[in-house]
Amino acid sequence: MAILQSEHRRDEEITPDRLLRDKPNSASGKVAVFQYLTAAVFVFLVSGFWKLQVQNPDVYSEAAERNRIKSTPILAPRGKILDRDGRVIVDNKASYSLLLNRDEIKPEHLPAIAEALQLDYSELAKKIRRMGNTPQIIIKDQLTRDEIAWVESHQDSETYPEMQLIKAWRRQYPQDGFAAHVAGYVGEISEAELDSPQFIDYHQGDIIGKDGLEREYDHTLRGVDGQQRVLVDNMGRERQTDTTQEAVPGKDLHTTIDLDLQAVAELSMEGKRGAVVALDPRNGEVLAMVSRPAFDPNKFTGRITRDDWNEIANDPHKPLMNRAIQAELAPGSTFKPITALAGLETGVIDATTQFHCPGGATFYGHYFGCWRKGGHGTVALHYGIEQSCDVFFYNVANRLGIDRLAQYAELAGFGHKTGIDLPNERESTMPSTRWKMRMFRQKWYAGETISVGIGQGAITVSPLELAAALGGLGVGGHWYQPHLVKTTPPKLLREGNFNPENVQQVVSGMYAVVNEGGTGHVAQLPNIKVCGKTGTAQLASNQVLKGTKLGQSMKDNAWFVGFAPMEGPQIVVATLFENGEHGQYAAPMVRDVMKAYFDKKARAAEAQNARLRPAGPRVDSKAAQPAMAALAVPGPGGGE
Amino acid sequence: MYRSLRDLDWPLLIVTLALCTLGVLQIYSATLGTKWEDAWWKQIVWVASGLVMMWVIATFDYHSLLGRVIYFYIGAVALLLTTAVIGNKVFGSTRWIHVAGFTLQTSEFVKIVLILLIAKYLTDIKAETLEWKDLAKLGGFVAIPMALVMKEPDLGTALTYLPILVCGILMAGLRWKYLLIIGSILLVTLPIGYHFLKPYQKDRLVSFIYPDRDPKGTGFQVIQSRIAVGNGGMWGRGAKESSQTHLGFLPVPHTDFIFSSFAEEHGFVGIVIALALYFLLIMQVVQNAQTATDKAGLYICMGVAALLLFHVLVNVGMVVGRMPITGIPLPLMSSGGSDTWSIFLMLGLVNSVRLRRFVN
Questions:
Q1: B-chain residues within 8 Å CB-CB of A50?
Q2: What is the pLDDT of residue B205?
Q3: Cβ separation B309–A41 shorter than 8 A
Q4: Which pLDDT does position B208 carry in this prediction?
Q5: A-B Cβ pairs (cutoff 8 Å, strict)
Q6: Domains of chain A (ranges, CATH numbers)
Q7: Is the model more confident about B30 or about A543?
Q8: Which of A40, A303, A527, B342 has the most neighbouring CB atoms within 10 Å?
Q9: Which positions in chain B touch A63 (Cβ < 8 Å)?
Q10: What DSSP string runs through B315-350?
């Protein structure tokens, strides 16, 4: 009874004053469980939204942005490289590149893409593994018409949606390696470069200057790539252009190179090995710089194949080497003007000091021969330079001693880099007691001085350094830093406070070399007072070349350095003709370049006169433009 | 006897209409500029007609419906069979039939019949707990339409029949021993059942667990939905401003994934408000179960509550990446006639139970 009562009471509590057909309240506990379960489900769901929307919303908003914004790089063209008159040496040509979008790359697509575009699959796969967070990577430049067609027909969302064609710029260099060493070349940035702090703002796949001016002035030439951002839908269809960040083109580089002179110098070195450098000794401007053999930088533009690279890099003639700044060779007799000036300035000789040349002389127990076995007889300074008498300069060097000789040579730039604005310049060697102690921990023997006096022995120099040294001597002892960019102000490196008469003595000797039956008569020019000096350097000191199997390698190197006009030189030209046997064979190149220089000046003056006196009698211009027309200068990049 | 509008469950109705309003607005925003642009006013038509159906059902005494449930059941099975024969094939699945200009998804209406059938069966049992025989019969009743719907194939809708059954059984009372046995049997048979799934269903399960394995394939919907939700952030991107929704990255942003687009446009704040409304909706249905005058009413209301909870859990869970993709709509918000109608019919049943509280 009590149980019934209590049960009745409970019924009343829950459904008071209601009649019951059965007892639904028996499930009330279970209903409560259901309510808790419902609450748990909602907590579970809300926590899910909390995690996505509140805890890290950036992850997803960025993902949403990646979804809808397709950004395509707009590649900035590199600056052009221009000559001193604004003529184009290195240009750009529009082309197409293929890039892959990281988010869409499927590894199974890569073999097919690599095959169609003739890329090395393993290299491509490696590159893609390394790309990290870069959203896109360019895998091929300069697509051919066929490749463009293939990409366009396969880049749909069903086939290879990761592919995207973009407009790019192809670097266009002059044909046949014209000015190749000066311009340098560009290539894809390497792993090592990427790791270096110098290239912190570069990215995988960027094109970077690898050598020459391209390297030295990469920051100037290089533009800033832009970006086109396009709103796309889920099918990749472009809905609207979002924002476009325009590319900033690289700045043009105005060089000091004169294309006319460069063309003549290039032609004069055709088929030879060596280098030609033409400078303006009054300010250090490089007017022409040729190194042969050359390479075709067009082969390097963009992503060179390994085979092409190996072919060029392993060529025994080293076409990549810029001999104008990297060939460190004994200057031979071209050093004699320096010895002469040192002798005059220190007073160990004067213009009348005579030595007897019987074809050789003995110093410190060693016999040193003169190049003319029969001897020159009694020789003073003027005749000694003109005939390049070795015995005369042996004696001068002997009187000077190595350190006084080195002092003057170093003033002229021997033993220093010129600091020209090109990468990888090598340093010349000027022996001295200090140098020998530092290098070999040995004392200097007086006998060693004798060979150095005629530019043999340990002394080495590059064509550029030699041109700068003798050009500076020609202008009376002012040595300017050679440079290739026009806007660089002339920088006086060293100055010799010389007696002008002493300089005059040496210069007149060099005039005799060309004009008074000396060793450099080939370099004569009508109406122009050309001064010069031949040099024939033995290769005995060049151990590297000695070991090679090249047939020519044991022939002597020929040098010629000339400047003109005698009073106030405006141009100095140095030529290295490797294995040219005798210095006089290097003289024609110097003559041609100088002729081009003065002919051009004459033409400019004539044009000036014609402008000033328009009504005056017309001067027959045929006589004034001889060589240039015949040379048919190959313009940069040809006429394509 | 007199039934007035005043006696309806007004809190339930207000919450329902609030959710329907959110739904219509979101459908409008999500379909702007797409081929479904007219879905929002169609949805208004569905909701309005649904309200009428709800009122009609509410005026019926649910006991008389329970008395005829076996005919409804036979009719439902026949309807599913008819669908299989003359139904429209859309997206590789035969779910719809044309009736008087409407395209109806028959499997949606089977839910109501099952709710009634299970309530009827459980009421008729006088014992305190269920025996194996009862479980087998109930299981059989549900298994027949489930099998037919799975055959369509429409795994998602077929699964929605289960919570009705499970909830009914648990409400009626099940011995712990039985519960344990059933639990262990399920644990063993589920992995075997996996092998009978269709390949695309397997893919969905796999991509639920590892969505990043194939981001452009089956994992696409999971990832894109998650991105849409996350993109909403705390306050949302604003109506019509959502990129995931409007650039087509969200699959079906007005039906199954409406909550993704809602989450993207209205953010966490909007989500909490919408989920709170669903919580109130279910709690209000449960409240009607508690105040029901008999067990039949309780079973009906709890069946509806369980079904709603299951829908919300699976759909919203899918949106937020916590449930595999099954393709079942979000009640009251998703655009669609059949499921909107079936929800209103169920709410009609709940109101019918409520109105009969006053009956002697």
A1: 268
A2: 67
A3: yes
A4: 62
A5: 147
A6: 75-106+114-254 (3.90.1310.10), 259-612 (3.40.710.10)
A7: B30
A8: B342
A9: 227, 230-231
A10: HHHHHTTSS-----PPTTTS--HHHHHHHHHHHHHH
Q: With beta carbons less than 8 A apart as the criterion, state whether A71 and A228 touch.
A: yes
Q: Cβ contact (<8 Å) for A52 and B320?
A: yes
- Which H or E element spans position A101? strand A88-101
% chain B with pLDDT above 70: 92
Distance from CA of B313 to the nearest CA of A (A): 7
Q: How many domains does chain B have?
A: 1
**How high is the pLDDT of residue B212?**
56
Asked whether residue A283 carries a pLDDT value surpassing 90, the answer given is yes
Under the banding of pLDDT at 50, 70 and 90, the label for residue A22 is low
Q: What domain range includes position B161? A: 5-358
Q: CB–CB of A46 and B248 under 8 A?
A: no
DSSP string of A519-531?
TTGGG-BTTB--E
- Per CB-CB distance under 8 Å, the chain A contacts of B229 are 49, 52-53, 60
- The bridge status of strand A88-101 relative to strand B102-105 is unpaired
The predicted-structure confidence for B247-271, as pLDDT tens digits, reads as follows: 777 777 888 889 999 999 999 999 9
Distance CA B289, CA A559 (A): 111
For residue A532, pLDDT beyond 90 = yes
Measure the CA–CA gap between A470 and A164, rounded to whole angstroms. Answer: 56
The predicted structure's pLDDT at residue A105: 81
**Residue for token pair 């026949």:** B78
Is this structure's pTM higher than 0.80?
no
For residue A111, how many C-alpha atoms fall within 13 Å in the half-sphere facing its CB?
1
State the Cα–Cα distance between residues A411 and A413, nearest whole angstrom.
5
Give strand ranges (E) for A141-295: 163-172, 185-188, 207-211, 226-232, 238-245, 253-254, 274-280, 285-292
DSSP-derived 3-state class of residue A413: coil
Return the bridge partners of A360, or none: A369
Asked about A541 being catalytic, the answer comes back as no
d(CA A610, CA A615): 8
List pLDDT tens digits, range B142-154.
999 999 988 887 8
> Which positions in chain A touch B268 (Cβ < 8 Å)?
49-50, 53-54
CB-based contact (8 Å) between A39 and chain B?
yes
Query: A42 — contact with chain B (CB < 8 Å)?
Result: yes
Joined together, the tokens standing for residue A374 give 């029969």
Residue A416 backbone dihedrals phi, psi, to 5 degrees: -125, 155
A16-20, A30-34, B275-279: which is most confident: B275-279
> What residues of A are in contact with residue B320 (Cβ under 8 Å)?
45, 48-49, 52
Helix or strand run (H / E) with residue A557: strand A557-564
Task: Determine, for residues B243 and A68 on separate chains, whether the beta-carbon distance falls below 8 Å.
Answer: yes
Predicted confidence (pLDDT) per residue in A441-453, tens digit: 999 998 899 999 9
Q: Between A244 and B171, name the one with better pLDDT.
A: B171
- SS3 of A123-145: the string is HHHHHHHHCCCCCEEEEECCCCH
* Selected residue of A25, A34, A62, A160 to mutate for chain B interface (largest B Cβ count, 10 A): A34
Residue in A27, A39, A59 closest to B230 by CB? A59
* b/e code A476-499 from CB counts within 10 Å (16+ = b): bbbbbbbbbbeeeeeeebeebebe
A333, A428, A432, A451: which is the annotated catalytic residue?
A333
Q: Which amino acid is at B100?
A: A
